[in-house]
Each structure stands twice: as C-alpha cells, then as structure tokens.
Amino acid sequence: MLKKVLFSLIFSSISVFAFDYNLKPVKITKDVWCFLGKLEIPSKENGGFMSNSCYIKADNSYVLIDTGASFQFAKQAYEAMSKIEKLPVKLVINTHSHDDHWLGNNFYKETFKAKILGPSLINTQYSSDSKTRMFEVIKSDAIKGTKIIKIDEIVNEVKNIKIGDKEITIIPVGTKAHTSEDLFVFMPNEKVLFSGDLVMNGRVTSNRDGSVIGSIKALDMIKEKDWNYLVAGHGLDTSKTAINEAVEYFTLLKQRVLEAIENETNGSEITKVVTMDEFKNKAMYQELNSKNVFDAFRELEFYEGN
b vs e for 256-279, b when ≥16 Cβ sit within 10 Å of the residue's Cβ? Predict the structure, then answer.
C-alpha cells in the first residue's frame, strides 16, 4: 500500500511552480512516440527542449531513447505518455554526451530503477557536482530536481537487446563524428532508426566536438541500414528524407573547404570563402555555420585522404 501511495504522489499534478513544457508526443509508428524539440538554442523560454526524446513500447514497458534536458522535462514527458498507456520505463539509451539528451536520466532511475546505457563520456566527463550548460541557461523551475548520475552500462561495441517483443540494436560509430563517442539505435523489424545528433534536419548542425570525416562515415553507416523512419537528434522530419540535409551539408562542407585549401585560402579567410549558402534559411545558420566551417578548415588543412 505504501508503495502505491508513493507512486501516486510522484505522478500527482505538476506544481504550479514548475516550468510547463507543454509536451505533446508525436506518433512515429505503432509503438514509437517522440517529443520533437524546438529548432533553436536552449533558453529560459524553451526550458532546454531543443532535442528529440523517444519512447518505444515493448509489451509491458517503455524503452527511452534520450531523456531530454532536465528532470522536469522527463517527468512531464512520462506524464504525457501515461495518457496513452501507463507503463514502467525499464531501459534508457543515451546516444551521446551532450547534456540536452540525458539530463532527464535521474527521473527514470529514481522512479523506475531503469537501466541506463550509453557512452563512457557521460561517466568520465561529469560528476554529481558538475554544472552543465542547462544548469546555467534554463530557469530554476525547469532544472529543478535534475541530478547528474552515472550510466549503468557503457556501450562500446554493437549490442543486441531483446526487451518484450522488440529487438533493438545499439551501434557505436567507433570514431569521432558528432562527438568522440556516438551511438545510434536501430529496430530492424520495425525499420526505425534513432540517429542521435549524427543527423539533424531543419537546422544547421553543431560540429563543435565533432569531425567532418567522422560524420560522413557515420552517415554512411546509417544509410546502410534498412529503415523507413529515422528520428534525428534535432529535427521534425522522420521520413525517408530525414537524413538528406545532413548528408548534403557534410559532403559540401568537406568538398568546399578542401577546394579552398587547395586554392591557398587561409584560416582568416575561410568563412568568407566557404559560406554554405544553401543552408542560410535553416535554423541556427547564423549561430553555427561559420564555426563549423572554421573547425572543418582546421581538421582538413593537412588532410591527405579522399
């Protein structure tokens, strides 16, 4: 009886003092729903909700792909999903170490004792005392309750999981791509792929911790899989075209920066020569594109590959 009372208290209505994310799950397939984030930088206004977080129904439980920017986000996402079907969350998969994708972990650990899988960087780069950017950027009522916890199992090789009626494969890229440790998740029977930030659409990517060459390799790995639905780390397109912008962006970025280097363009000139104008109407172009070009120049300046 006591457990039932405690469980009821956890999911009582959101306090009037809590940030309201106003979350609405988007149905991707029969058993997959996602909360699709805003195509903008994290802010007080959006509570850090600018990445995608997905629920997979596996018989009598849910599997989570990325848990969002805060405890409050995760709590409200679960409350929204409970209106569809109230099931426990048994497994959480974090695709990479950027905090907008995993700061909701402690909600699922505290509430369901969910097992958390992901890259080692979450454990090695952060401790319970760390203050990531979300702690600095979003409001106190949005970050309330958020704690940094360790993941339970590091995934550094292909891992096949059977949970309920679902077969799930976690695939590490194996080289620096969006970060130095990226995972993507594939459901072969449902033909659904969760790319994390290896794919973004509707906005320009952030390559601050990544590699142009590695990103192209990762995109090639994703293209090899037989999927009908792809959920990007950021972006609203989940169709067969969901990967196209990322492929075009990184292909052109590599090609144009290498051409500029061949023409003896230096680092102080590269962002004036390589402008990626095809993407100037995409969200985040002004904030991120020039930095991506400069970082690509530094990576490719002495590149000798194809």
Answer: bbbebbeeebeeeebbebbebeeb
Q: How many residues does the chain have?
A: 306
Q: Is residue 277 within 8 Å of 291, Cβ to Cβ?
A: no
| Low-confidence stretches of the chain (pLDDT beneath 50) | 2-3, 5-6, 9, 11-15
Asked whether 91 and 115 are in contact (CB, 8 A), the reply is: yes
Task: Give the chain's end-to-end CA distance (angstroms, integer).
Answer: 65
**R_g of the chain computed on alpha carbons:** 20
Chain position carrying tokens 């809590």? 18
Q: What pLDDT score does 5 carry?
A: 46
Spell out a b/e string for 143-153, using b for 16 or more CB atoms within 10 Å of the CB, else e. bbbbebbebee
pTM of the model: 0.94
The beta strands (E) that lie in the chain are given as 26-29, 32-35, 53-58, 61-65, 89-93, 115-118, 153-154, 159-163, 166-172, 183-187, 192-200, 229-234
Q: Return the DSSP state at 100.
A: G
